[in-house]
Amino acid sequence: MVNHDHVEIIDHLPVLLKEIVQALALEVGNTVVDATAGRGGHAQAIAKVIGSQGTLVLLDRDQHNLVFASERIRS
User: Which residues, 6 or more positions from 43, have their beta carbon under 8 angstroms from its beta carbon?
Assistant: First the structure.
């Protein structure tokens, strides 16, 4: 069993962020599913493009990452 109580959280810089957002050809109001949300780096950039009229669904097998990513997007 792994104890995560004392794990240092290190922020992750998303790889190829600009290129991925551009390749997705996003528009305001789109619905997007990020099935590997991780710490939310790409999701944050996607959310900025699709705006409040869009829908962004985050999935990740690590619940802690989902909480972090959700908070990151809201900020």
Answer: 34, 37, 56, 58, 69, 72, 73
Indicate whether this model's pTM tops 0.90. Answer: no
Domain positions in the chain:
30-74
Give the distance from CA 13 to its chain's centroid: 11
Instruction: Report the alpha-carbon distance of residue 64 to residue 2 in Å, rounded.
Output: 14
Three-state helix/strand/coil letters over the chain: CCCCCCCCCCCCCCCCHHHHHHHCCCCCCCEEEECCCCCCHHHHHHHHHHCCCCEEEECCCCHHHHHHHHHHHHC
Q: Give residue-wise pLDDT tens across range 47-71.
A: 999 999 999 999 999 999 999 999 9
